[in-house]
Amino acid sequence: MSRALLTGNAAAAWGARLARVDYVPAFPITPQTEIIETLAGWLDAGDMPGRMVTLESEHSMITAAGAAAATGVRVFSATSSQGLLYAMEMLYTVAGWRAPFVLVNVSRGLASPITLEPDHNDIFAARDSGFLQIHCSTCQEVLDSTLMAFRLGEDPRVRLPVIVNLDGFYLSFTREPVDIPEAQLAAAFLLPYEAENVRFRASAPASQAMAVLGSGPYSYFRYESHLAAQNALGVYDEVAQAFGAQFGRSHPAVDAYRCEDAEVVFVMIGCFATKARHAVDRLRDSGVAVGLLRPRLLRPWPAQALYDALRGKRAVAVIDQNLAPGKGGVLHGELASVLYGQPDAPPVLASFIGGLGGRDISAEEFYEIAALTRAAADSGRTPPPRLLYTEDELREVRKLQAIAHAEREQLRSES
Amino acid sequence: MYRIRFHGRGGQGMKTASRVLGSAFFCAGFEVQDAPRYGAERRGAPIFAFVRAAREPIDERGVIRCPDLVIVADDSLPGVPAAGVLAGMDEHSVLLINTHEDVQLWRERLNLAGPLLVLPAPAETVDRAALPYVGTACAAAAACLSGSIERDCLMTALREELAALPETVIEDNLAAAQRAWDAMAPHRGLVKERDEAGARDYTPPAWVDLPFDSARQAAPAIHAAATSVEVRTGLWRTMRPVIDYQRCNRCWWVCSTFCPDAAISVEPDGKPLIDYEHCKGCLVCVAKCPPHAIEAIPEHQAQQQEVAP
Question: How far apart, in whole angstroms, are the C-alpha atoms of residue A411 and residue A405?
Fold first, then answer.
């Protein structure tokens, strides 16, 4: 094992390399491109076996990934943001084929307006596609989760494709120390793929079902996917345990940090959660009993583990790095479904929206979230959702609008 | 924890500088985080990169707000507000600027609360293939100023990060690093780590409730044509193309056609004119001109010649 400085993108590429992938369909998009560039370099130099094919779009790329997976080989691909959305039709389609592969998504906010920086609306758009989802908060987790994702998706009790998610810039282009496992240890953890009856072949026609299904068969196949995804909860725990035994690193489905005796708990996903962890330490130093709960697994949704960790707490603050216009934070709604009507559910479930388009969340903002949530626990009233947005940010927008307005007026007077 | 920001222009090696410094800290036993920050990749545009180094795993992420050290690779950047060179600097923060000018001049100009040092920019060379390796020099200076990195670690880091380059280029970089290290040696250890303020006495964020604005105002629309003309991308230039009209054969199309920014116009008599307000200094025209009538000179030199009577 060697410890090296790796970007999140390089860590994802290392995960694919150590998984000994056979096939990498590829299409570039910022901030993901470095992943396929790295793999291309290794494939070209003979550092890893396998084959890469560049496709003409993400739609074709996911089709190729699913089709290759259906032949029983090990497949890896990567995309981001608009690319993931362009592939959306095929995400649902290939998930239904029950042919496992691993897709890395590097989160980046969606247009319009356009940005290169991260939030989670892209990956949440794929929430109900049938892909499982693992969300990472460090570069180490990116590498480890990629290996784990293959073992999880390929398990005969699951057999579903898996997305491993990391945040653009904050992880994708950020180097951190990462333990790179020895190849033979990785091979011992992730055995060759036993594809069983997944063996679609050229000149050997096969059909899984009728072209157009009635509601009965349709419901059957859809619900079987759901049951497989739910099986993945238990299988994930086994995979995480095996990973811990092999490499000494623990990646539970739900990462609970200083939650046991916490009165108030932050709930977050992704790499901004390390900022929350930092804030938890500082708040603990000042005597405030705060914890952080971070679901790594988003699909399947680890409802029981989340409930167990939050049961009896005074209040919960969900910090959503996404926005469903007309609704609010997606994670907040998912948490409510875990807690509502359950014994000892926290009476306050507050919603905060922050980090849209990579907007930073400061330590002071976490302290303030803790203060507001504690006050809400005292009063027993959940506060209205709060967008993390400051006077200075609004002033900057007003300045831009003043310029745009002046130009518009000028144009009108000239015409 | 050390928090260090490098400011430069796309192409000057700021990302590499942050990686060299990151690797040097890593070699010295630190936990490290290094990252570049840019929009769509743009040669010559202001960019920055940053390094965090601490004895414990680092949970902080993203842009460094309160830097212990800011390194400015290009002395035209403090005059560009969008570059944000001075953001978050206080009496604890050290500024190191790579410049031909005098340290006193910069102290008066910027009037900072903290220390300001100059990294003497190397004299211009006639042979432009002999690049100044400004990124390497900046990384070496930062390593020295931190006081926590031995020279051996710096040199190991340079060899690691530049491994893909030819040995002679690596040797030149090592020499540039040595010069920068020596220049900073009197100030070794000037840059100090600092702890972050705790959660007890924090200033609450000034959050606002966003008001509803009519879509006439709130749609992200640009209402005027040709607004990009207002953006003086000429400020991104580190090298300036200059046309020698004695050599120019008035072909009327080559340089103006290949200019990716449409910054070269042609007079009716075939004479090309470069719009220096918007020329980014990519030097495609220099490479394309058939009679070699376009020369590239360092931007600051060109500006000095303009000022001179």
Answer: 10
B126: pLDDT confidence band, cut at 50, 70 and 90?
very low
pLDDT, one tens digit per residue, over A81-95 is: 999 999 999 999 999
Sequence letter at residue A38:
T
Chain B CB contacts of A411 under 8 Å are 223-225
Whether residue A262 is contained in a domain is answered as yes
The whole-chain average pLDDT of chain B stands at 91
A220 and A311 housed in the same domain = no
In this complex, do A170 and B62 lie within 8 Å of one another by their Cβ atoms? yes
Q: How far apart are CA B160 and CA B154, in angstroms?
A: 10
Phi and psi, residue A40, nearest 5°: -60, -40
- The residue range of the domain holding A337 is 254-391
Set of chain A residues whose Cβ sits within 8 Å of the Cβ of B59: 274-275, 277-278, 281
Q: How confident is the model at residue B125 (pLDDT cuts 50, 70, 90)?
A: low
Quickly count: other Cβ atoms within 10 Å of residue B31's Cβ: 16
Q: Which structure tokens are listed for A139?
A: 């570069």
pLDDT in tens, B248-264: 999 989 999 999 999 99
Give A157's DSSP letter. Answer: T
Number of CB pairs, chain A paired with chain B, less than 8 A apart: 115
Mean pLDDT within B57-78: 93
Query: Which residues of chain A make contact with B195, given a CB cutoff of 8 A?
Result: none
Reported ipTM: 0.93
Residue with tokens 């739609």: A59
Contact assignment for A390 to B202 by CB distance below 8 Å: no
CA A324, CA A332: separation in Å to the nearest integer? 11
Torsion angle of C-alpha atoms A59, A61, A63, A66, degrees rounded to 10: -140
- In this structure, the number of other CB atoms found within 10 A of the CB of residue B219 comes to 11
CA B9 to chain centre: 4
Which of A247, A266, A299 is a domain's end point?
A: A247
A356-394 pLDDT, tens digit per residue, is: 999 999 999 999 999 999 999 999 999 999 999 999 999
The CA distance from B260 to B263, in Å, is 8
| Contact flag A394-B210 (C-beta cutoff 8 Å) | yes
CATH of the domain at A369: 3.40.50.920
What is the b/e burial string over A175-214, where b = at least 16 CB atoms within 10 angstroms of the residue's CB? bbbbbbbeeeebeebbeebebeebebeeeeeeeeeeeeee
Cα separation of A161 and A80, whole Å? 16
- Of the candidates A306, A279, A297, the one whose C-alpha atom is nearest the C-alpha of residue A360 is A279
A99 SS3 class? coil
Give the separation between CA A289 and CA B199, rounded to whole angstroms: 12
- Please name each of the domains of chain B with its CATH number: 2-187 (3.40.920.10), 233-307 (3.30.70.20)
Q: Which two tokens stand for residue A284?
A: 């603990």
